[in-house]
Design goal:
The chain has about 300 residues and is α/β, with parallel strands linked by helices. It has one domain: Metal-dependent hydrolases (TIM Barrel), CATH 3.20.20.140. The protein is built from twelve helices and ten strands. It has an eight-stranded parallel β-sheet. Helix 4 links the parallel strand 5 and strand 6. Helix 8 runs parallel beside helix 9.
């Protein structure tokens, strides 16, 4: 179990108090998938606060897709953060195709948001679209990191290609000071994500999409270790899709899925990944506990 002063960080969580915030395409999954895990999800702000109690700190992301009528806005994220401001830090969901994204970003920064969250396939916008490139330029100038959330690979409004890690190639070259987190190991393009991390030092990823299938997580982490980019992998749960503490334990125990003659990832490297400060790594100001004030419960 997780214990001691060195506690995990969670680079990707979500929260919503009302399913209608997710729009009909996502909220409908809760109603239609009666036997599936979606119906059991509780993404409420209070539940998020309870889930992150074993963590040092966690990023909670807003989401916006005008094409999918999805809008967990900056005030929603600020409300979620207020449930545990010493552990939670917010990233605002911005849709580059929204005509008011500039005003929304300004409001979000005033509310204390530490970065920006996008989802290209859900938003039907390629990362090199002129509107998106303007957003990246603004984020770089304001030192706001960008998370490309793995929303849109299963349900989306745009081409699936927009979710590919390689779609960020031109952006990574054009904005070398912009820190970009490619969510969920770029699934289903895991090798492509690792190639991008190998090429660009300002790119990062996190574990959330692979935590439910730890045998695949082992392969991704093994390859990241072999390529020398495991230091740019962060632990992410995508709460409420996984519990943060359980996701951290899965990462720490992933070597049980190594084949008999396969390499074991050093436990020190796995622990370093789980305890890596996601805020500091992405160049964002963290909440109180991530700065070493207080003791994680």
């Amino acid at each position: 179990m997780i214990h001691g002063q060195h506690m995990p960080f969670d680079a990707l969580t979500y929260a919503w108090n009302h399913p209608h915030k997710l729009g009909p395409a996502l909220a409908g999954r809760f109603a239609s998938d009666g036997a599936g895990p979606w119906t059991r999800l509780d993404g409420s702000f209070d539940q998020l606060a309870a889930a992150v109690r074993p963590m040092t700190a966690a990023i909670v992301c807003g989401l916006r897709s005008d094409a999918m009528d999805l809008h967990v806005n900056a005030r929603d994220v600020a409300d979620a953060v207020s449930r545990d401001p010493i552990r939670l830090g917010g990233f605002v969901g911005i849709d580059p195709m929204s005509p008011d994204w500039r005003e929304e970003l300004q409001t979000a920064v005033a509310l204390g948001m530490r970065g920006v969250c996008v989802a290209p396939a859900a938003q039907a916008v390629h990362p090199t679209h002129p509107h998106a490139m303007e957003l990246w330029e603004t984020c770089q100038s304001q030192s706001l990191p960008v998370i490309s959330a793995p929303i849109g690979t299963k349900v989306g409004a745009g081409p699936l290609d927009f979710a590919r890690p390689i779609a960020w190639d031109e952006t990574a070259r054009a904005f070398p000071r912009l820190r970009i987190l490619l969510g969920g190991f770029g699934w289903p393009w895991i090798d492509e994500c690792l190639a991008m991390l190998s090429r660009y030092p300002n790119l990062f990823t996190e574990t959330s999409t692979l935590v439910p299938t730890p045998w695949r997580l082992y392969g991704a982490l093994r390859d990241a270790w072999a390529l020398g980019v495991l230091d740019r992998v962060l632990m992410g749960s995508a709460f409420p899709f996984s519990e943060p503490a359980e996701a951290a334990e899965t990462c720490l125990r992933v070597n049980v899925y190594a084949p008999p003659q396969g390499p074991r990832i050093p436990i020190s490297s796995l622990r370093a990944m789980v305890e890596r400060d996601c805020f500091k790594t992405l160049g964002a100001r963290g909440p109180t506990l991530s700065d070493g004030v207080g003791v994680a419960a």
